[in-house]
Design brief:
This is BirA bifunctional protein [includes: biotin operon repressor and biotin--[acetyl-CoA-carboxylase] synthetase. The protein is of the alpha+beta class and 244 residues long. It contains 7 helices and 9 strands, in the order αααββαβαββαββββα.
């Protein structure tokens, strides 16, 4: 229901839409509409309500990584058709592996924070709350396990293309990093469950530093973020472009 409400008010742009009109379109009571609007405000949507006018989105929540925001104008065949958004998790990759067998192909896991984010060779990935994109994608390709590394290469190219389309001049550092001005801005970690000639699933983990301004001393000369390099990009736009 909330997905439909967000879609309607996003399509309505800055125009008010009455609670009565929403209740007619969605087939629910005005009281139910009010409850959903209240819940959406608590989630971070800046929804303006005016007596005898109705509701409108006061500003586009470009940094709120809710499924509703990402679904809006997402043009993809199957990746991202199912999105799970979490406040915090141990690791999006670990969570994805726990649910992969029962999840549909292309399921996306997003978390605002990771307690145990990791990169290649088990290295810790600094996943500060609301300051990056910490995402895993569950894939179920019909491919032999030895071909799985190609998914990492494709993902690196996809992230680079997405960021470049949004104005950030990024480059791929093979096999699994994306760099900006000579420093790492994104890491990719691919993990799989497979048998001898069959891939059960692949978990593609992508971490993008968006807003982080201060890095730990041991990586301060190697890592950077979009904001630190002067690119104030929307996290929602980045996710949409990567998934597309």
């Amino acid at each position: 229901m909330r997905d439909k409400i967000i879609e309607i008010i996003l399509n309505n742009k800055s125009e008010f839409i009455s609670g009565e009109e929403l209740s007619k379109q969605l087939g629910v009571s005005r009281a139910a509409i009010w409850k959903h609007m209240k819940a959406l405000k608590e989630e971070g949507y800046n929804i303006e309500s005016v007596n005898k006018k109705g509701y409108r989105l006061a500003e586009n929540p470009t940094d709120l990584l809710s499924p509703q925001n990402i679904y809006y104008k997402l043009d993809t065949e199957f990746i991202g058709k199912n999105i799970e958004h979490l406040d915090t998790i141990d690791s999006t990759n670990e969570h994805a592996k726990r649910i992969a067998i029962n999840s549909v192909d292309g399921t996306v896991i997003l978390s605002e924070h990771q307690d145990m984010g990791k990169g290649r060779l088990g290295r810790r990935w600094d996943s500060k709350p609301h300051e990056g994109i910490w995402m895993s994608i569950i894939l179920k390709p019909d491919m032999e396990p030895f071909k799985a590394p190609f998914i990492t290469l494709i993902a690196g190219a996809s992230v680079t293309k997405a960021l470049n389309n949004l104005g950030a001049n990024t480059l791929i550092k093979w096999p699994n990093d994306v760099i900006l001005n000579g420093k790492k801005i994104c890491g990719i970690l691919t993990e799989l469950s497979a048998e001898i000639e069959r891939t059960n699933y692949v978990v593609l983990g992508i971490g993008i530093n968006v807003k982080i301004m201060d890095f730990e001393q041991e990586i301060a000369d190697k890592a950077t973020s979009l904001y630190k390099e002067g690119y104030m990009l929307s996290r929602v736009d980045i996710v949409r472009n990567v998934l597309d």
